[in-house]
Amino acid sequence: MNYVVPRPPQGQKRFIDIWHIELDGIDSSGYLKSTFLAEDELYRASLFRFERDKQRFLARRIALRRILSEYSGIAPDQQIVLRSNQQKPYISNSWVQFNTSHSANIALVGVSSEPIGIDIEQHKEDANELRKLAKSILTPVELNQFNALSKSQTAKSFYQYWTLKEAYLKAIGLGLSIDPRQLEINLASLTVTSVPCMQTAAKWHLMLVKLQQNFSVAIATPDATLTPNLLLFADLID
Fold first, then answer.
1. Region(s) of the chain under CATH 3.90.470.20
2. DSSP code at position 228
3. Contact (Cβ atoms closer than 8 angstroms) between residue 79 and residue 91
4. Is CATH 3.90.1640.10 correct for 18-96+227-237?
5. Separation of alpha carbons 118 and 164, rounded Å
6. Are 24 and 56 in contact (CB under 8 A)?
């Protein structure tokens, strides 16, 4: 994985930046004392049963606000993050497009001049369990191709399907509010071959990003000419 050096906000220039965040490396205590987060974020954090999950949630929110301030010019504690009718997040009074995802100790924030969807998943289920789960997310065509794979290929392919579908559905603002089996993807060409009826005219570019072993990462963007810049959040706060 090659990372680029963090750089100044890019205004309206077309770009995709993907921020890699190690959640357990962020100390949330100082940010909380300075009212860095909003009341609703602190309330949501209080609902977690386990302390590790609570701290990771706080770390995600802290990192998101800090990163978005680099582009929007809005101080972290002044940002108003809203959601569309389809629950896609956006910043009030800002051109910045962004999307987030997390799995285990890793969170990603995708920031772009264009609409974007991103997803990360850690590989953790065994092959037999994945074949059962596949029935709930894959179309008949995808399922036939998936079931023909060897056990050694099962996890990689399953999570590629899963992350690509979720990235696409997040990019168009629907997330998993619809059945992922309404969306069909060709893994070989990374193309959408069948889409939900309301999105038949949409043209989206899908990408798989190599991050770490046993993780799958996918991005959806309408601009096929853009290459993601990979950045480390730790470099931003050093």
1. 18-96+227-237, 120-221
2. P
3. yes
4. no
5. 8
6. yes
Q: Which residues of the chain have pLDDT under 50?
A: 8, 200-201
> Which among 39, 125, 83 has a CA at the least distance from the CA of 134?
125
Give the phi and the psi of residue 207 in degrees, each rounded to 5: -135, 145
* Residue pLDDT, tens place only, 170-225: 988 877 778 899 899 999 999 888 876 555 445 789 999 999 889 999 999 998 88
Stated pTM of the model:
0.89
User: CA-to-CA distance for 218 and 159, rounded, in angstroms?
Assistant: 9
Structure tokens at 33: 């004392």
Q: Which two three-digit tokens encode residue 125?
A: 């289920």
Pairing of strands 184-186, 191-194: antiparallel
* Three-class DSSP category at 106: strand
